Amino acid sequence: MQSEQFERIHAFWTRRPQLTQGELGEFYQRVIAALTPCRPREAASLGDSLADLRHQFFIEKVLHGDSEAAPHHVGALFLYFKRFIIDQLRKQRIEEDADAQDGCELRAPDAYAEPLRDYQLTPQQVRAAADVFIATLPRDLILLLRHCGCGGMPVKELAEQIASAHYHGGKLGLVHRQKGDPDSAGRQVVEPAHRATLLGSWVLSLLKLRVGDALAARDLQAAQIVLDILCVAALSLHMDPVSTPSNPNERPPA
User: Which superkingdom does the taxonomy of this entry point to (predicted)?
Assistant: First the structure.
């Protein structure tokens, strides 16, 4: 964009509150046109098209924003747009983690201590063991645990990011709580069909339960507590958000 053309954007920007409807329309068209060549790589991890992101940027940061100084060249405008994309990614990560923790329906930490005492364990020891267990998992399995095991996202939602997602989910031993049954995931993970999975064998080993043992209700409760603490450990990791397909009308570069 030529400097004299961008001067028009700068002039509109400096007096945004006083623009007429006609000037506002021209301002919008000029900003959107100026941003068209800007295709931040980070935008590939957001579900919105670049056209939608440009529109959202104009409304939130250009029209109603009051913290950004008027850019003097198109490079500064690109930088503002890239910062906006990064902010959106941060918001997405926070929302995903919050949704995942809501899916776990975690108990208060004090509620863990008494049931674990029968297994010569403390919540702190289980958390340390969970950190070690997670460190042994490849990235794909950690993503499955965070988003599908702890957050309740369907495995198919990760199929484009993780090759053979269903196979790896089975190998990991993903389980989900059933509504109204707080210990249902713990009960599932120690069932015979799950005991050979990574999660099932780890939970049984940590609680010092043998594969052939007949499990009591307290064992199932303890297994659920271990899974809850594992979810807290998994969700506390700082990982790039899972990318989702963009609008097919306009896909940003991967």
Answer: Bacteria
